[in-house]
Each structure stands twice: as structure tokens, then as C-alpha cells.
Design a protein that fits this description.
Elements (H helix, E strand, L loop, with lengths): L1 E7 L9 H12 L3 E6 L6 H22 L5 E6 L4 H15 L2 E6 L3 H4 L7 H13 L3 E4 L2 H9 L7 E3 L19 E5 L8 H8 L5 E5 L13 E5 L6 H4 L4 E4 L10 H6 L6 H8 L4 E4 L5 H7 L2 E4 L5 H7 L2 H19 L2 H16 L2
Helix pairs in contact: 2-3, 3-5, 10-13
Keywords: Transferase
Organism: Gemella haemolysans
Pfam families: Gtf3_C (PF26337), Gtf3_N (PF26334)
């Protein structure tokens, strides 16, 4: 039997919960049964620690009770209660003879966002805890190499390639609009490149979507802020000839911790654009650029200053090819093709090693 831990979250207007929620749905479609976990309340460090030592530990009791020999549990990483999971998972595996698959959403020890990074916890999460799993679904081959260098066995690792993205909204026809969509967290400290791009002279329409837009910034005639939308609504709101995948504080390269992280991760916004049938423009050194180039679903650039030429000078036939490929991949993402393929590979490998 296949099981998965389902965290009980509130609704959010960022893309954060979208990926894990889609994993829940796709695992359910594979025949998985959910085991509900509550998210700890946000009431201070002491209350949180007490909660984790009581409710947090008791929730793993449900896992222990349900899992039997040969059963498989899907766990999503990172999650609350790293230290508890690190102690309990090996114990459950030993006693119940069950198997564990982990799906990596982020490696905080690699991303190192200053406002949320906890060196001790994230080292445990990304080193010790990951090693406790029988199979690890990582983002791509670049992240796979990184994890192997950190001491994780290659036999455990399966590359996802790209995150899937559930959407039932109609894909828009945006063949001839010379415009660029940027969706995500628009907080200036999180996405400084956007505000540098706003100050830059360009000859295309820039369409912005997401929370925390700096309202003090004066927008020019060719810049429009559409607002913030729930992840399930966003694919139907996007307007753009291309969607941009970029990060950091520079127009010329993806710099800083968030920019460097693109060398290893699968940005969820890539999946967002493609699920809407929109080809992407992506940094050529990003790990996801390999997927985009292989499937001819976008354009690779070194600098954002190249976008003018890309948008305004691409031929109709070349764009049509990118557009059709984006639509084809988008349909796969809507159906969970890549996640289901990765899970099946994990299950097949574990069964062959019995």
C-alpha cells in the first residue's frame, strides 16, 4: 500500500503550498492513502517546541500504526519536525519493514535565505534526514550531483526533471503579444532584479503578478501590475509571449544565494508558465535550462538585456514551435506525468531489490 503524509495548511496567495498540494493529489491518483499531520501553531518558540514534543511526536504514531511490511510512505521535504522525523523514520523502517520515499521541494542548506536559514536544523534536514530514506526524488541531474557529492548514494536518487502543476484553466492564445510575464514574490529584497529591470529601458510590455509589490515604484506605460492571485487561478490570469525564470540582484546574471540556487533547483514558476502554455525565457546556466533546451519550450539567455531582441525579433514559425511544445509539456504537467513517472521508478527499483 502507498501512503502519504498530508499537512493541513491554510490557503495562501503565494506559490508556496501549490507544489506539495499537487503532490498530494497525484499520489492519491496513484492509489495512495493520506495520513493527516497538523501544522504547528505560530505562537512563539517555546509553545512550538512543546507542541512538537507532544502533538508532533503523537502524529508519527499514526504512521507507525498504519504502515506494514512492504508499505511505502511518501514524505515531502522540508517539513516541520526535522529532528523528530530524523529519529522516528529509521525506527519505523526497522520495526515495520516499510519503505520511505522523499520528494525534495527545497534544500535550505543550499538556498540559504537569510530570513529563514537555520544552519543546525537545515544541515540535519539536508544531510542526516535525507539519508534515512530509501528513495529520494530530487529536482534534476544537477541537484543529483550535488547530493552525491554530499555523501548520498546515487542508487537512492531519482530526478524529477520538472514539477507538475495542476490546472483546469484554458490555455490562452498569446502568439503575437510582445510581452513578458513575471510571476512570483515581488518583495524588493527577494526579487531585486525586477526593480532593476523596471528602471531599464526596453521595448516590450512587462506584466507583473504576485504579492508584496513595492507600491512606491513608478510604473511606466509599458509596465503593468496585475495583482496577486491564488496559485490555482494564476495560470488563467497570465498574459505574456514568454514567462521569465530569473533570480538575484543583477540584469546580467543570476547572482547571490537565490541566483546561485537556480543552478540546482526546479523553480516552480517554470511549471506555472508551461502549464499555462507559455514558453519561458530562462538563465542559460540554470539547471532547468537543460530541460527547456531539450524540449524546445523556451529561450536561454545570459542577460536580461537580451530579452528585447528575443521578444521582438523571433520569427512567427520559431515562436509557434516553442508555443506548441510549451502546450504539450503543459498538458503533461497538468496530469502529473513527471511526478508519477518518478514515483513509479522508485517503486520499481525498490521491488527489484527485495
Amino acid at each position: 500500500m502507498l501512503y502519504y503524509i498530508k499537512m493541513h495548511n491554510g490557503t495562501e496567495e503565494t506559490a508556496g503550498p501549490k507544489a506539495p498540494n499537487d503532490i498530494y493529489e497525484f499520489t492519491k491518483e496513484l492509489g495512495g492513502k493520506s495520513i493527516g499531520f497538523k501544522v504547528p501553531p505560530n505562537k512563539g518558540d517555546l509553545h512550538r517546541k512543546l507542541w512538537m514534543l507532544t502533538v508532533g511526536i503523537s502524529q508519527w504514531g499514526k504512521v507507525f500504526a498504519k504502515l506494514g511490511k512492504g508499505d511505502v510512505l511518501v514524505y515531502q521535504h522540508p517539513a516541520n519536525g526535522t529532528r523528530i522525523a530524523n529519529k522516528i523514520i529509521p525506527w519505523i523502517k526497522k520495526i515495520k519493514k516499510a519503505k520511505f520515499i522523499v520528494v525534495i521541494h527545497d534544500l535550505e542548506s543550499l538556498r540559504k535565505l537569510s530570513y529563514m536559514y537555520n544552519d543546525a536544523i537545515h544541515k540535519i534536514a539536508d544531510n542526516e534526514l535525507l539519508n534515512n530514506f530509501d528513495k529520494i526524488i530530487c529536482h534534476n541531474d544537477e541537484m543529483k550531483k550535488y547530493l552525491i557529492d554530499r555523501g548520498i548514494s546515487e542508487d537512492k536518487l531519482v530526478s524529477l526533471e520538472i514539477f507538475d502543476y495542476i490546472s483546469s484553466l484554458e490555455m490562452k492564445d498569446n502568439y503575437y503579444s510582445n510581452s513578458l510575464a513575471i510571476a512570483g514574490n515581488l518583495f524588493p529584497e527577494k526579487s531585486p532584479y525586477i526593480y532593476k529591470l523596471i528602471e531599464h529601458t526596453f521595448n516590450y510590455q512587462l506584466n507583473l503578478y504576485g504579492p508584496y509589490m513595492d507600491k512606491n515604484i513608478k510604473l511606466g506605460d509599458n509596465i503593468k501590475y496585475f495583482g496577486s492571485f491564488k496559485p490555482d487561478e494564476l495560470p488563467g490570469k497570465l498574459e505574456g509571449k514568454f514567462g521569465l525564470v530569473w533570480d538575484g540582484d543583477s540584469l546580467d546574471t543570476c547572482s547571490g544565494n537565490t541566483g546561485n540556487y537556480l543552478r540546482y533547483n526546479n523553480p516552480h514558476k517554470t511549471s506555472l508558465y508551461l502549464s499555462a502554455g507559455i514558453p519561458v525565457i530562462i538563465w542559460k546556466e540554470a539547471a532547468m535550462s537543460n530541460f527547456i533546451e531539450k524540449h524546445k519550450a523556451g529561450i536561454l539567455v545570459e542577460s536580461l538585456t537580451e530579452i528585447d531582441d528575443v521578444i521582438n525579433n523571433i520569427s512567427d514559425s520559431d515562436y509557434t514551435e516553442l508555443k506548441n511544445n510549451a502546450i504539450q509539456i503543459g498538458m503533461q504537467l497538468r496530469n502529473g506525468y513527471y511526478y508519477k513517472k518518478a514515483v513509479q521508478k522508485c517503486l520499481d527499483n525498490m521491488n527489484s531489490n527485495k
